[in-house]
Amino acid sequence: MSPTNGTFTLINADRLWGTLMEMACIGAGKAGGSNRQALTDADRDGRDLFVRWAREAGCSIAIDEVGNIFARMDGRDPSLPPILSGSHLDTQATGGRFDGVFGVLAALEAVRVIAEQGIEHDHPIEVVCWTNEEGCRFAPAMLGSGVVSGVYDTEFAYAVVDKDGASFGSELERIGYRGEFPAARRAIAAAIEAHIEQGPILEAEGKTIGVVTGIQGAYWLDIVLTGQSCHAGPTPMNMRRDPWRAASAIIAGALGIADQYAPSARVTIGDMKAEPGSRNTVPERLTFPVDIRHPDASTLEEMVAKLRALVERASVSARLEHEIKQIWHMPATRFDEQLVDLIEREAGELGYSYQRIVSGAGHDSLHTAQFAPTAMIFVPCEDGLSHNEAEAARYEDIAAGANVLLRTIIRAAQNSQQQDS
Ligand SMILES: [Zn+2]
Description:
Elements: H1 13-24, H2 41-56, E1 60-63, E2 69-73, E3 83-88, H3 101-116, E4 125-130, H4 143-149, H5 154-159, H6 168-174, E5 190-196, H7 201-205, E6 209-215, E7 217-226, E8 230-231, H8 243-260, E9 266-268, E10 273-275, E11 281-282, E12 285-294, H9 297-317, E13 321-330, E14 333-334, H10 337-349, E15 354-359, H11 365-368, E16 374-379, H12 395-412, H13 416-420
Parallel strand pairs: 3-4, 3-5, 5-16, 6-15
Antiparallel strand pairs: 1-2, 2-4, 6-14, 6-16, 7-12, 7-13, 8-11, 9-12, 10-12
Helix pairs in contact: 1-3, 3-12, 8-9, 10-12
The protein binds zinc ion.
EC number: 3.5.1.87
GO molecular function: hydrolase activity, acting on carbon-nitrogen (but not peptide) bonds, in linear amidines; metal ion binding; N-carbamoyl-L-amino-acid hydrolase activity
């Protein structure tokens, strides 16, 4: 049975922890984590286990045409739009036990408690397991929720192939999770996703709960600078068209832009390619990616505009040609204020330490936020480590995050008109 602390119904922390550890055994990794990449046999086995548990908890199961699973428990009024809560069960090739899985199984635990305690609720509650959040086998990431939100269409998703040429559509069919009903927007009363932070902030601040206010925006730009190759010995410095002249100014300037918009801005230059790539030749071409992020959409645009102007100036002054290719853009997302306030209130009432935080990584909530009131709950993870088999979270923090989720779901699932009276 689920304990209470006198005032509140709480989740059964041992049961939640047990389901997390049992799920981790499916596609168990070599170093204590999991390898349950999307639409593999291990992903199917993980889904099968989730579906069995959800049925045992009294849920009905619906699967949409891109394999998103919705485990539904009706409330007093089945005609009301549902409260949606969950995350993803797929992992990186060397994934941890908590990324995504925590959000799905914490929502399942909430539904188990609501059912066994007979807690009355008006709205239906649906536990969601999104398909292919990680994107490591099938790019892009967050594909299942992306189709539902309308960012991608179903045919696009089916045609995506992995590195061996297997398509998303055929693999979905093969594991038996190509469902019937359309992957499309519908009325959702609230979407709430619990997740490990995947960063170091909560641990460093000594806080148990992160009340997530949004997801920072990001641009991936590739910068290509083209000059002229020449011999490193005979060519005087002032007669060269050396891409490094501009690159060094651009790199220093790009990091300077991050400093200027500190502490929220992030600028990363993760690679650099020189062509032809010979130690005694001035390169003809330099290509490097810039990953640039900020939680506020207009500030992010300002940063990108400054970077573009910098590339232009530096290239002209070094007599180079330049090109800036946009590879990817994740819009900055602000979560629903009422839902964020509700999560904050519940964390406080339960007596947990908490702080507001912006997500540094993308999540399926990015997509649900486009058509439904959305918010997220973070718990700390050890050393901020994720996408690593060593990913770890503390039992108490997992329980705390799931308790905040349970309380938030219960509150959100009451008919708002009754709540107001
Ligand atoms: Zn995740």
